[in-house]
Amino acid sequence: MKILGPDLEFPHPNTADAHGLLAIGGDLSVERLMLAYRSGIFPWYSDGDPICWWSPDPRMVFDLKSQKPMKISKSLRQSRRNKRYHIKENTCFEDVMRACMNAKRGLHEGTWINEEMITAYTALHKLGMAKSIEVFENDRLVGGLYGIDLKTQKNFCGESMFSHKTDASKIALWYLVEKLAKDDYNLIDAQLYNDHLASLGAMEIDRKVFLSYL
Model-level pTM greater than 0.85? Predict the structure, then answer.
């Protein structure tokens, strides 16, 4: 595990430990964050701790080149048709991040978001690198997600999502899957395995395979 200094660099992801921890330290500058994501690395750490950088093996992804990149249940189809939700893009990025930060979740699912992260990712959003999908009921934000858009590599790095109403976050993800598949993207990076993502169609692939898409 490498201790990062001021130089803008990361060790190769293959040097990560068994848990996926690659390096500690550095900063959350726009330049370092984009180098990280383009290298298959992401930050995840508890508030007050040093910044930790990860590249796990295996990697959880939605394969946008498959015939069914996301599992769409009958009830989810009914929700999208009947709930009167409407979907927007990039109209309230910081609100989405804060909703994700405040959502009650399990381990690896977003509880690590803090003010430092919000500042850093909002800066990325202003540069067009971080994106949000937002689900509204009337004028109220009830669900959504955000992540890093690697346009050149045709990959989207999903960070977190939230839901205040039935199926709102799933509908945001479904919208994103459809949009990215239409734009010929390869993957949505979901980072780490959890049962919820698996139930929606995400799967694990070897880190070596994941890095090949970058």
Answer: yes
